[in-house]
Structures are given as C-alpha cells and as structure tokens.
C-alpha cells in the first residue's frame, strides 16, 4: 500500500503557510528596521562619546559635525578630521538633527549654549539621541 498526501491536504497546508507568511513578513520587516535604527543609534552615541574622550585626551576642543545630506558624522580637532562615520550608508537610515555641530571643550563639557538632538529614521522606526549642552548622552 502506498502512502501519500492528497491534493486537498496539500492545498490546505499551503493555504495555512500562506496565511502565516502574510502575518510574519510585515512583522519581520519592522523588526529589521528597528535593528538598523538601533545599530545607528549605538554608532552615533559611540561617535559622540569618542569625541568627548578625544577632547579630554588632547586637551583641545573636539567637534562633531553632522552632515545630513550625506548622512555622515565627522569628528575633528582643529583642522584635522580624526573620524568619519557613514551612518546612513552603513545602516540604511536617514539622519536629521536640531543642530549640525556639537563641540566638546578640553574638560569634556559641551561647548555651546544649546542641546542637540539627532533623529534616526528607517521607514516607521524612529529613535532620537539627545546630547545635553553639558555633553551627556541619552536616547
């Protein structure tokens, strides 16, 4: 006696798999967006923290420039660019910021009069990195 599946059983199985896939695919896309945004936020926080440490180590003012057109962050001391992070290209996110520059004094304190917010977006997933005028980070 041969054992096999009937066409009705195969059709029902394929329909059930189709319904489960229709539910899972959008959720997986949203999860992937959140992962990319989180990775970009971690890299941005690392860049600002690194700039603060460079300012302290060199006893000089360090600046983080945010180029929203190219989605890139630059860390510089004087005329020397020490770090360049292509956050948008590496993580597939869009950056926008309340200001385009944040400077740290030689003591590690923020140099300037206002806080900075960097907004990271990919599709519906959004996160924000806040840099206080004292140089502290949070998101």
Structure description:
The protein is α+β, with helices and mostly antiparallel strands. It has one domain: minor pseudopilin epsh domain (minor pseudopilin epsh fold, 3-Layer(bab) Sandwich). 41% of the residues lie in helices and 32% in strands. The chain contains 2 helices and 9 strands. The strands form 2 sheets. The protein has a 5-stranded antiparallel beta sheet with strand order 3-2-1-5-6. Strand 5 (101-104) and strand 6 (110-111) form a beta hairpin. The longest helix is centred in the first third of the chain and has 52 residues, at 7-58. The termini are far apart. The relative contact order is 0.16. The mean pLDDT is 90.
TL;DR?
This protein has 139 residues and is α+β, with helices and mostly antiparallel strands. It has helices at residues 7-58, 87-91, and strands at residues 62-67, 72-77, 80-85, 94-97, 101-104, 110-111, 116-122, 125-131, 137-138. The chain is built from two helices and nine strands; from the N terminus they run αβββαββββββ.
């Amino acid at each position: 006696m041969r054992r096999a599946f009937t066409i009705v059983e195969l059709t029902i199985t394929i329909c059930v798999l189709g319904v489960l896939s229709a539910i899972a695919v959008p959720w997986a896309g949203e999860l992937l967006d959140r992962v990319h945004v989180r990775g970009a936020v971690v890299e941005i926080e690392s860049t600002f923290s690194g700039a603060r440490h460079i300012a302290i180590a060199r006893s000089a003012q360090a600046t983080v420039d945010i180029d929203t057109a190219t989605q890139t962050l630059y860390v510089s001391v004087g005329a020397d660019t020490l770090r360049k992070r292509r956050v948008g290209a590496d993580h597939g996110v869009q950056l926008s910021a309340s200001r385009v520059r944040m400077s740290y004094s030689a003591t590690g304190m923020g140099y300037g009069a206002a806080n900075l917010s960097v907004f990271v977006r990919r599709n519906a997933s959004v996160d924000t990195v806040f840099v206080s005028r004292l140089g502290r980070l949070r998101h």
